[in-house]
Write a structure and sequence with these properties.
Blueprint: E1 5-9, H1 14-26, E2 30-35, E3 47-49, H2 55-61, E4 70-73, H3 86-100, E5 109-113, H4 142-154, E6 160-165, E7 169-170, H5 180-193, H6 204-208, E8 214-215, H7 216-228, E9 235-238, H8 247-258, H9 270-273, H10 280-288, H11 301-309, H12 319-324, H13 332-345
Parallel strand pairs: 1-2, 1-4, 2-3, 4-5, 5-6, 6-9, 7-8
Helix pairs in contact: 1-7, 2-3, 3-4
């Protein structure tokens, strides 16, 4: 097993960091990480500081990657206000692949993490539950162009690829604020501090819509499974918890966890709502001994606006993954409370 050597790209983020932790725990992999900043806990793993938008940096790093067998691509180019553009995200894949492929003679597999935007979950109502066989939508999509960049380079080669499609990944991550539960926890803490109930900040339709989300620990196990199951070669898989929920059904439980009244549906753009509340988080941090007095380390309000604006069902079928052999499921409500508890125990949330 140790003959496998993984390159975890984007290892400082929520998905990459938790996947790195998973691989380390298995003791079955040699590992190298690559990202602009090092992961919070490298545990002795070699790290390459590379800006994937700079092809020269990619080329400079390539000679150290000749023995890589598996690439796990967890990176994204995200601009201010959670803007994810097509061209930079295509380029970061092309830059790395074009630097790596000429030297990685042992390469067996490349995996890229995508999501429900493949089906247009961010654009409006779509066919649910989404299936991997659903046709592509018209127009440009950075997921499409990333995967095409990989497929075009894989033709007539010995290595294979696969792509996994989670939705609104949830997990513990330090310094990764585009995160469902850390952002929700910060929102709740600020409302509680200013004496307001836990109002739902999206539309009524979003409160009522059917949702799937993904536990990052389940995703990490699915990532290793897809990389080591030969039948997964050149295939795409949805990866969600396996159950369906509505925010209206979990909101009272979340409010109880935070020690708050559940409130009502009160649509608000959190980027705007939080503008005059800059002093609240430092006061909370001092009161509760939190690790950071900067709310931007724990919450991304632009991401929250995306999370809560979808007033339509956002669900995906897990049938294909189950048929190929990955049958794990997670109870979403229990997952939420577990991860929020972890944030609290680590003094990241009050």
């Amino acid at each position: 097993m140790k003959s496998r050597k993984a390159l975890v790209v984007g290892a400082s983020g929520l998905v990459g960091g938790n996947f790195l932790k998973h691989l380390i725990s298995t003791k079955n992999w040699n590992i190298v990480t690559l990202s602009r900043r090092p992961p919070a806990d490298l545990a002795g793993t070699p790290h390459l500081a590379v800006d994937l938008l700079d092809p020269q940096q990619c080329q400079k790093a390539a000679p150290t990657l000749t023995d890589i067998t598996h690439v796990f691509y967890c990176a994204r180019a995200v601009a201010t206000n959670y803007q994810i553009s097509v061209d930079p995200n295509r380029q970061i894949v092309e830059n790395l692949m074009d630097a790596l492929l000429p030297v990685a003679e042992k390469l067996e597999y490349v995996q890229i993490i995508h999501g429900m935007k493949w089906y247009g979950s961010n654009l409006g109502p779509y066919a649910t539950p989404a299936k991997e066989s659903d046709p592509r939508l018209p127009g440009r999509n950075f997921y499409y162009e990333q995967l095409d960049a990989i497929i075009n380079r894989q033709r007539n080669q010995k290595w294979s690829w696969s792509t996994l499609r989670p939705h609104f990944v949830c997990g513990l991550a330090v310094g990764s604020p585009s995160n469902v539960l850390s952002t929700l926890g910060a929102y709740a803490a600020i409302l509680k501090q200013i004496g307001q109930p836990l109002d739902f900040p999206g539309l009524q339709g979003a409160f009522d819509a059917k949702m799937n989300i993904t536990d990052v620990r389940l995703l990490a196990r699915a990532m290793e499974w897809a990389a080591t199951e030969p039948r997964c070669a050149n295939e795409a898989f949805n990866v969600v918890n396996g159950d369906t929920f509505r925010w209206r059904d979990v909101w009272p439980t979340l409010a109880d966890h935070f020690g708050m009244a559940a409130g009502t549906v009160r649509p608000r753009r959190l980027r705007e709502f939080m503008v005059d509340k800059e002093d609240v988080w430092p006061a909370l941090a001092k009161k509760h001994g939190l690790r950071s007095a900067n709310v931007a380390d724990i919450a991304d309000w632009a991401f929250a606006d995306v999370l809560f604006e979808g007033a339509w069902d956002q669900t995906a079928s897990m049938d294909k993954a189950y048929q190929y052999g990955f049958t794990e499921t997670i109870d979403t409500k229990s997952m939420m409370l577990d991860i929020l508890g972890q944030y609290r125990n680590l003094k990241l949330l009050p």
